[in-house]
Design goal:
α22 packs across α23 and α41 (736-748) runs antiparallel to α42 (752-765). The chain is mainly alpha-helical and 825 residues long. It contains 45 helices and no strands. Helices cover 78% and strands 0% of the residues.
Length: 825
């Protein structure tokens, strides 16, 4: 029995269709069908015509009226789809999944998978949608839904910002389904994906390909927009203006795209400082229809425009609104930078400092941002405030971020100079070398070359310093630093003990650079060079000539008078020397440079093992300049000189005084030296205890103390304990000396195999240290001899015989001896 309700629905539908000719013919056709088929036909046509609510009711009635119909599966599918098109997605999903469980549904499994995927897609569950699209693709390679599934799967990847995966999928669609309308859609999505990835090279290629194939596409307005954006990012601003205008000219009522294009034009006019045009372009933008990102771009653009046109308060308000409200880090960063510049240009420096500091707190851990803008801006604000120390610190940070060559080199110079000022010469040298290597023709090259030499000189790398200063003099003939370079070259030779070359440099400077501020100091050091050659007569001549100069400053006068007096003392003219020393003490009691000269002279004689001369200079320094920063080091050197002479009692007196009166590194070194003396006196147990206590609060000297402690253990024949210390040090530092000590310990334990292994390891690992390699090989060869492994020993001696050392002759003799020995066996 057919229900009255269903008859009424059919009547309504037939009444609607009767006015359409083709539907009337279909109606005639339906009249000739059996009732079940007729009911199915009507419900199906309602679905196809978009009457989903009606079709749903009809199909549900159909299942009630014909529970055993062979169309039951198709009807269930139509019901699920009707629910889908009514946006009743959860209900439709339930229906699709129930159908999936029906055995007969295997024939339409691909269709069901497709609609399940589509349902998940509509609910924005892209993960599950993608899963079912892929399941369809892999299980049904011939399905009519395959192309659509591929496209929708690519769209899922695109929606989830997996642009690379999306590109791969859309590219496959283009290749496998070139005749499908989806091919053009895929090409367009590829362009959008490259745009979002900011892959400008591939974006350009994809746009060109699209324009060549789809020159009449309805999406040309968007293609021109993306090409405009591409040109904008690449800095091709005139081309970007052309493309934005092309987009606007062919745009067909797409107000969103029109606003975005005008926004882009506004930014270009802003960059070109066409402020009126920028204002007009921004005025055409409908802010209300923009996405949040573009809304904020518009606000930022207007803020920058106000900033450039001196509307300070208006600009600041807009920047503040972005800083407070934006969640886009890119917009925030630009707002901070622009606000900082606005306040700087308005001389509101303290406010600018706060802005830059706040920005650095927010972005310091985000490597994708151009932080050098913040560091550079903050540095200049500090300069305006007179805070030069902090300004330098910020300039140093620019190096990490800046792509501007001039700024980067300037900042690198500042960084290297700072390391040098802090006494970290190795770091300074590395930075100067990097500048000269990476930027050989930069504006600061002569300065960098000079500073490199100074850092090498201060770190006592004299050979390298000589090369650096010589290169400055030869390669930069017009440099204003040539006199400084020549002076420093002479000073390097002087500290190296090559007084012949040092005096040549100093005399050359004095004669060839009459306007140099270093001229008198150079002549003074020329006199010192003669002095150190024991040519006291010539030194006296130089010093007297220097004293005739009228523009000599007091400090140089003090040093010159002092050395002149000392020269007379060296010539045994004690009367003249005494007269000059008394006059010097009376006239210049407060000189601050003389202590440096005295210290260097003391150090020189200390290195020359002329201990009494060294002590005289150090004691003189201590007596004359009690506030000198060199006092504690002078005391230490005095104590050290006594130790070298074997006068341990006097050494202890000095070290005890140094330990008690000072709290610096020399005080710690004095404590170590006192323990060394105890160990030397045989008080090894006490020495071990004191070394161990000292380790607890002197990490700076831990390596030295550990080595001293290991030496004591070795004197006690406690080789295992010594090796334990060496192994511990090996974990902290790379030092071939430590490895050599370990090898010696094995040798002392008569574990010759392990010792040989260590010695050979050193020779392989530290091949640059030729002396150490030779020493290690000789030890290894000797141990092979001890083990009577003659061929192994011979192999090592063969290696030594080819080395450029005097020991090569000894090695050849050993080879002959081993050959003879083996021959007689």
């Amino acid at each position: 029995m057919v229900s009255i309700r269903r008859f009424f629905i059919i009547f309504i539908l037939l009444f609607i269709f009767i006015e359409i000719q083709n539907i009337r013919s279909l109606h005639s056709f339906a009249q000739n069908l059996p009732q079940e088929e007729k009911d199915f036909f009507v419900a199906q046509k309602a679905f196809e015509d978009g009457f989903y609510d009606t079709s749903l009711n009809l199909f549900e009635e159909f299942l009630i009226d014909y529970p055993y119909s062979n169309q039951k599966l198709a009807v269930s599918l139509y019901i699920a789809k009707s629910l889908f098109f009514q946006k009743r997605y959860q209900e439709s999903l339930d229906k699709f999944q129930r159908i999936m469980g029906i055995a007969e549904a295997n024939t339409i499994r691909d269709e069901i998978l497709y609609w399940i995927a589509e349902t998940y897609f509509k609910t924005r569950d892209y993960k599950n949608a993608s899963y079912y699209y892929q399941k369809l693709i892999f299980e049904f390679p011939q399905s009519k839904y395959r192309a659509d599934a591929y496209y929708s799967n690519g769209f899922c990847a695109y929606i989830n910002d997996n642009y690379k995966d999306a590109i791969n999928i859309f590219t496959y669609i283009k290749e496998q389904f070139p005749d499908s309308p989806l091919s053009q859609e895929a090409s367009f999505k590829i362009i959008e994906s490259f745009y979002n990835l900011k892959d400008f090279k591939n974006l350009s290629l994809s746009i060109n390909e699209f324009l060549e194939i789809y020159s009449k596409s309805k999406k040309l307005n968007y293609i021109y927009y993306y090409r405009a954006e591409l040109n904008y990012y690449l800095g091709n601003l005139s081309d970007a203006v052309r493309d934005f205008n092309l987009c606007l000219n062919i745009n067909q009522g797409d107000e969103f795209l029109e606003s975005c294009s005008n926004l882009g034009l506004g930014w270009i006019y802003l960059k070109n400082e066409k402020f009126d045009d920028a204002d007009k372009a921004f005025a055409k933008v409908n802010k209300e229809i923009l996405e949040q990102k573009n809304k904020e771009s518009l606000i930022l653009g207007r803020a920058v425009l106000y900033s450039k046109t001196q509307k300070v308060d208006e600009a600041k308000d807009l920047f503040d609104s972005l800083i407070i409200g934006s969640k886009d880090n890119n917009v925030l960063f630009e707002a901070y930078v622009a606000k900082g510049e606005l306040l700087y240009n308005s001389s509101r420096f303290n406010e600018a400092v706060s802005v830059y500091r706040d920005a650095l707190k927010k972005f310091s851990d985000k490597s994708s941002f151009d932080l050098d803008k913040l560091y550079y801006g903050l540095a200049w604000v500090y300069l305006k405030l007179g805070n030069f120390k902090d300004a330098i610190t910020e300039f140093q940070k620019v190096i990490k971020e800046s792509s501007n060559k001039v700024i980067k080199v300037s900042a690198l110079c500042q960084l290297a100079d700072t390391y040098q000022d802090q006494g970290d010469f190795d770091e300074a040298i590395e930075k100067y070398d990097k500048i000269l290597k990476d930027y050989p023709d930069n504006f600061y090259s002569d300065y960098v070359q000079y500073q490199l030499g100074v850092a090498l000189l201060k770190s006592e790398k004299y050979d390298s310093a000589i090369l650096a200063f010589s290169k400055l003099i030869s390669d930069f003939p017009n440099s204003k630093l040539r006199d400084s370079g020549l002076y420093s070259l002479g000073l390097t030779y002087f500290k190296e003990g090559d007084f012949l070359k040092s005096k040549e440099c100093f005399l050359s400077l004095y004669q060839d650079f009459p306007d140099s501020k270093l001229r008198y100091e150079a002549l003074y050091l020329a006199g010192i060079s003669f002095y150190n050659q024991s040519n006291f007569t010539e030194a006296i001549r130089i010093f007297k000539n220097l004293l005739k100069e009228k523009k000599l400053d007091n400090d140089l006068l003090v040093k010159t008078e002092y050395e002149l007096a000392d020269c007379y003392l060296r010539l045994s003219d004690e009367k003249e020397a005494l007269r000059r020393f008394r006059a010097l003490n009376a006239r210049y009691p407060d000189s601050f440079l003389a202590d440096d000269v005295l210290f260097w002279l003391g150090e020189y004689f200390l290195k020359e093992l002329k201990f009494s001369f060294a002590r005289r200079y150090f004691f003189s320094l201590i007596e004359k300049y009690p506030k000198s920063p060199l006092i504690s080091e002078s005391y230490y050197n005095i104590g050290y000189s006594y130790v070298q002479e074997g006068n341990l009692d006097e050494a202890k007196k000095i070290f005890i005084k140094l330990k008690a009166d000072y709290r610096d590194k020399n005080s710690v070194l004095a404590q170590i030296a006192l323990i060394d003396i105890k160990a030397e006196e045989g008080k090894t147990k006490e020495a071990v205890q004191e070394y161990s206590r000292l380790l607890e609060y002197n990490s700076e000297f831990s390596k030295l103390i550990y080595l001293k402690l290991a030496d004591v253990y070795r004197k006690q024949n406690n080789t295992d304990k010594a090796m334990e210390i060496y192994r511990k040090l090996q974990d902290q530092v790379v030092d071939p000396y430590i490895e050599f000590q370990i090898a010696e310990c094995f040798e002392e334990k008569e574990d010759f195999s392990s010792a040989i292994k260590e010695y050979l390891s050193i020779s392989y690992s530290y091949s640059d240290d030729r002396v150490l390699v030779l020493k290690s090989l000789l030890r290894a060869a000797k141990l092979f001899e001890e083990k009577e492994e003659w061929l192994q020993a011979k192999n090592i001696y063969n290696k030594i015989s080819g080395m450029d050392f005097e020991e090569a002759k000894f090695a050849k003799e050993k080879i002959n001896w081993i050959n003879s020995l083996l021959k007689n066996k």
